[in-house]
Amino acid sequence: MNSAQIEIQLIASLVALACAIPGTFLVLRKMAMISDAISHSILPGIVVGFFITQDLNSPLLIVLAAFTGVITVVLVEYIQKTGLVKEDTAIGLVFPALFSIGVILIAKNANDVHLDVDAVLVGELALAPFDRLVVSGVDIGPKSLWIIGTILLITTTLLIAFYKELKVSTFDKGLAASLGFSPAIIHYGLMTVSSITTVGAFDAVGAILVVALMIAPAATAYLLTTNLKKMLALAAFFGVFSAISGYWLAHLLDASIAGSITTMLGLLFLAVYLFAPNKGVIAVMYREKQQRIEVSLLTFLLHLKNHSEVEERHVNHLREHINWQKIRAKTVLELALKNNMIAVNNNVVSLTDKGDTFTSKAIDYIITNEDAQIEDMKDDFFLFRG
Amino acid sequence: MDLQEYFSLVFSDYTLRTITLGTAILGAVTGMLGSFAVLRKQSLLGDAISHAALPGIAIAFLITGAKDSNTLLLGALVSGLIGTFWIRSIVKKTHLKSDTALGLILSLFFGFGMLLLTFIQKQPNANQAGLDKYLFGQAATLVESDVWMMATVTGLCLFVLLLFWKEFKILLFDADYTKTLGFNTKFIDVLITSFIVLAIVLGLQTVGVVLMSAMLLAPAAAARQWTNSLSKMVFLAAIFGAFSGVFGTAISASQTNLSTGPVIVLVASVFVVFSFVFSPSRGLLFKQIRFIKNRRDLELHKTLAFMHHIAETHDDISHPHAIKLLNNFQGFTRKTLQNLVEKKYVTLDGNMWSLTKTGFETAANLYTKQATEDE
């Protein structure tokens, strides 16, 4: 590994960390698409900043771009408040318009400089180590490293300083307001941080990777935990992991680093989406199946309780009567037998004492619908799954 | 070339005619289908799909090795559909909200597409030039066969829309009711979503990934302000979309260095802003005017009611009172007093005012009317 490779991985990891923090709150606040909007609409800010300073490295560009990002949020909120269209439509109207203005400004006035729309959207991390910061003749490392490092430092400080406020205002706006910290200040603070992070990061990695790094790690983490601190830590971990493994994937395929990092993020999300213990698709499907069986079992027991006639309780008749397929009837029958709810004599099913008590309880619950009863029932239900 | 020259050339010049027709048809079809996206609160779906189409384009190119635009669009369609249905399944199966799902699929698919594109670039035999036109769109690359294809798809869309109009409409406004009526909501839902994806994929070549979502939203959002009827909205959105296409092409053709896509989007945005401000029933301007008028009426009524209250304590309703008395009352302004005089409810005599008979009766009526309304 040479020093350029280390620097690239370091920059990518810092970007991932800097994005994970605001990203987590954006995902929790259901504002993930705002990051996409900001990442596009800062373009005119950068272009105007360039016109004023004629210097692509001027810090004014970052300030103006971040300012445009905040303007985007304000515009979206203003349009939404008029009630003429819904929030998502407002987002979809604002950012393409601003982006178009940016593209046209570049095409009309800045065609000959290095301000390429491709570069803005896609970014080229591989070039980041060549743009170095030189202070009084001494090379102190790539410029992006310093920019994103500073942003990460500020973001982390703000996160630690305002953790409580952020947490409360994210989960309960009303409570936050009544406790005396203004949700509006927190909201615009978060928007400003997201905007600055986007600008700082996209100089190095491009707009799309910024959006991916904001949303994907946080969304992946959210599938694994509901604890905010754990979610932040997991999101940071996923971000850094994808940044480093993505870099090596790009190295292997000789392809875009940003694209590879995003692909790694995608694979991570896919894995968690499928296999997460409680909220993964497979776990959810399994749980749904269990619940269906439980409901079937209850239906079956209620049927037995309602009918004393022998012919109503014959195994074959049950199949026809409740209209279950063979396999489902068999599963339910076996489950009930295993839990000693029923007894079968000559293919005639009858409730045991235990089954009888349980079914009475169930009917009781269905009629009264009291919470206390379901708690007892739950214990019994766990028995069935055995 | 200025605008006039453009319009004189548009019928004779092959390139101009093709591009103008193409963007007009594209605007019409996206406006039409965009109405459904906006009303179904799927506005940002367009943004997500247009990004999600990229890996499909790249994979189609990798498989066939050819730059045939129909094959590439087919790839885009497939990956757009996969993205759309993945978004739905994320929203349905997990507790992630739709905005997270959209942003996730959008960025992940696009990033994967970039990976594939750069991978293709490094292939020795591949000539990938032209693939990145899908990123930003280049209306200039449209040829007659593309326009025919757009027209065919638009015709198909229109046919299906008319065929299932009732179903689409009822699904839009009451999905649960549609289900109880026995319609196959899933089928209708998949049908309309697939058409939205198809329209977006068609537009990629012309206006590009980033601006496609605006083409879907802007005409529909503008049309929504002018009518409450779905059929009128769809029709208006198609018109707005087509006009945005034509004007956008005209403006960009009349200037050097202006790419068509962004200009079309800006023209569509102008339609939106105009509609937001000037639509008679929902627009901000008339809303503000109504608001001011209502406030004025209220002030007038308040002053009149207050005067009536004072006058009631006297036997003679026209007993003159000093204007100072009204100063206790905040709603009093010279202007409202002047208005009342004009309506002949009040007569002014120097610094003294007195209610006229009509004024007293109106005020009494006003009062009783309010009293009965309060009950």
Write structural notes for this entry.
The complex is a heterodimer of chains A (386) and B (375). By secondary structure, chain A is mainly alpha-helical. Chain A has helices at 3-28, 32-41, 43-53, 59-82, 87-109, 117-122, 143-161, 163-171, 173-179, 183-205, 207-222, 228-253, 257-275, 281-306, 315-322, 326-338, 353-368, 371-385; strands spanning 132-135, 138-142, 342-345, 348-351. Chain A contains 18 helices and four strands. Chain B is mainly alpha-helical. Helix content of chain B is 76%, strand content 3%. Chain B has a three-stranded antiparallel sheet. In chain B, strand 2 and strand 3 form a beta hairpin. The mean pLDDT of chain B is 84. At the A-B interface, helix 2, helix 5, helix 6, helix 11 and helix 13 of A face helix 3, helix 4, helix 5, helix 11 and helix 13 of B.
Secondary-structure element order of chain B, N to C = HHHHHHHHHHHHHHEHHEEH
Helix content of chain B: over 70%
Number of helices of chain B: 17
Relative helix content of chain A:
over 70%
Mean pLDDT of chain B: 84
Most extensive interface between two protein chains, with residue counts: A-B, 61 and 62 residues
- How would a textbook summarize the main sheet of chain A? 2 strands, antiparallel
Radius of gyration of chain A: 29 Å
How many beta strands in the DSSP annotation of chain B?
3
Beta fraction of chain A: under 5%
Uncertain segments of chain B of ≥5 residues (pLDDT<50)? Answer: none
Q: Mean of the pLDDT scores of chain A?
A: 84
Number of separate strands of chain A: 4
Q: Largest sheet of chain B at a glance?
A: 3 strands, antiparallel
Summed up, the helix count of chain A is 18
What ranges of chain A have pLDDT less than 50 throughout 5 or more consecutive residues? none
Q: How big a fraction of the residues of chain B is strand?
A: under 5%
Assembly of the depicted chains: heterodimer
Distance between the termini of chain A: 54 Å
